[in-house]
Design a protein that fits this description.
By secondary structure, this protein is an alpha/beta fold. It contains 12 helices and 10 strands. It starts with 5 loop residues before the first strand and ends in a 10-residue tail after the last helix.
């Protein structure tokens, strides 16, 4: 399907089982408006039902992953309007409820809604040019896509307070030290690195990928005992599938497994 604000490509550069989604509003540094977020939600909904897609890579441009939400679109809206359309709500839910893995490949600015969008993904691979921030305080507002909650969980209260209350940006090296991103690569290698990681994920059992993602996410939302119980039950449940038999048989036979999602 062709979109106006995003570009989608299945198996880019031979990355089997991977859907690449690129934010495409270059004139606005990929600022997130209602139309772009709706298209992103539609693309993820289609990917959820497509067995050929086992992992998604979400990226922007070299200059900006997304420089924030579209201020021009929001500036004149009232509380009633924002509440009535649940601004940011549907798009956030579309990503939160997407069960397959999503990797964010971030280059350049990831500010405000852009930083929050990256944090909604399962992990972030950053170019050495990446800059992260939640500068909403400079506009007289606050994060609205989870920034105050996710950033605090990722980097701790002190650093989150520092960034949110001063609006300062965090570079890629600091973001890696703080635990916001999983790895940093040179800018020219960013997409190749992200696609390589996504291809590795896509080659695994899709059922196991979904369950592993669910386990890790549960660690942020449950007690330790509840999380451990969920992990054990999901681990047990994977023995009901053919992929478990194939994976262990291939290991014993010293050959690559062929997972079918069954």
């Amino acid at each position: 399907m062709t979109y106006a604000n995003i570009i989608t490509e299945i198996s880019p550069s031979g990355a089997e089982g991977v859907l690449l989604i690129q934010l495409n509003r270059p004139q606005a540094l990929n600022a997130l408006n209602v139309a772009l977020l709706a298209e992103l939600g539609d693309a993820l909904k289609a990917a959820a039902g497509d067995d050929l897609v086992r992992c998604v890579v979400l990226t922007g441009s070299a200059k900006a992953f997304a420089a924030g939400a579209d201020i021009k679109e929001m500036s004149d809206k009232s509380y009633a309007e924002m509440f009535a359309i649940d601004f940011f709500g549907p798009a956030t839910a579309a990503i939160e409820n997407f069960r397959k893995p999503i990797v964010a490949a971030v280059s350049g600015y990831a500010l405000g809604g852009g930083c929050e969008l990256a944090m909604l993904c399962d992990f972030i691979i950053a170019a050495d040019t990446a800059k992260f921030g939640q500068p909403e305080i400079n506009l007289g507002v606050a994060p609205g896509m989870g920034g105050s909650q996710r950033l605090t969980r990722f980097v701790g209260k002190s650093k989150a307070m520092d960034m949110i209350l001063t609006g300062r940006m965090m570079d890629a090296a600091e973001a890696e030290r703080a635990g916001l991103v999983s790895r940093v690569v040179v800018a020219d290698a960013l997409l190749d690195e992200a696609l390589s990681a996504a291809t590795k994920i896509a080659s695994a059992s899709p059922l196991a990928s979904i369950m592993n993602k669910e386990m890790v996410n549960a660690a942020y939302e449950t007690t330790l005992s509840q999380g451990l119980k969920l992990e054990r039950r999901l681990f047990h449940s994977l023995f009901a599938f053919d992929d478990q038999k194939e994976g262990m048989k291939a290991f014993v036979e010293k050959r690559p497994p062929v997972f079918k999602g069954m």
